[in-house]
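Final report, closing paragraph on structural work. Over the funding period we assembled a curated collection of sequence-structure pairs, and we close with a single example.
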Amino acid sequence: MRKALLLGYDLRQPSFRHRMQSLVDTLTGAGWEVRTERFPGGRYGIRTWERRELLRSVDVVVLHQIKLSGIEARLFAAFSRHRIFDFDDAIYVRKPRRLGEPADDSRWRRMKFDATCRSVDAVAAGNAVLAAEARRAARAVEILPTAIDVAAYQQAAAGSGGGPVIAWIGSPENLVYVEMIRPAIARLAARNPGMRLRIICSSFPDWPEVPIERILWSAAGEAAALASAHIGIMPLTDDVWARGKCAFKLLQYMAAALPCVASPVGANSEAVIDAVTGFHAESLGDWEERLQALIDAPAVRARFGAAGFAHVQNRFALSVYRSRYLDLLARICGADGSAAPPSQG
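Its predicted structure, as stored:
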């Protein structure tokens, strides 16, 4: 029986749950023994030395979002048979501290990223932007977009009456992106009686000029919260950090058959097909115009929502992601347990 170890800094983090935890049942069903474990931050080298017996005991280790220093990468390679570096954020830079500021692009962070890419058998990147960065140092890179379990979502009646409800789902630290389109949302609220901005999060903005519906995020409740909305939004700044994002909230909206309006940045441009599954919006004027167009046209919302649902099923289905990841792991280990070169995806 082959053994796989999936390492992450926080096993409860959404990225780990969607990219790593979602593989466990598939791997187990294919005859793998799978273990997930938290890998501590910092303490470079020591943390790997402490886990040397664990690393030796498995056939392949997947490091999710974990960067190793140059020396630690060599130590890690000495203790493990096969390795994959998996990431779906621009972790080679640090997120801008304030809206409009550039991402912190330090030499130390880049060195760790490159060292990790060089030390593994393959890199699994969440989108083409991330893959391009990895290819500067990695021997093999495969693009494996973060996928979604469409069956876990309820399809919204996008053409239904009531509302209109504009939904945003995400983490508190990303509310700053909603703030950037606040003037457009405020003008829409003034012009459309009954309009609400539904925030599905663990923290909420306080905008006196906008009726905000506060829904505390939970894994059990997110599907219903999206299904009763009318439009999903994902504004972003255009910077190195944002271009590396994998547009997961857009996949959630489309799994719920919601039409989307999104900044055409990075993976957003691939997730939302302009004028087919939703609209792209760059300026505040664009945001106001595109959202108003969807508010005014229930039939268009329904058409875009259906197209988005089909798009996410075809392009971002969890079954496809699991199958491709299983194939990658098998190729890394090789049919006879020896290393086999992965494809250049």
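Residues 298-315 form the longest helix (18 residues). The mean pLDDT is 93. We thank the funder for supporting this effort.
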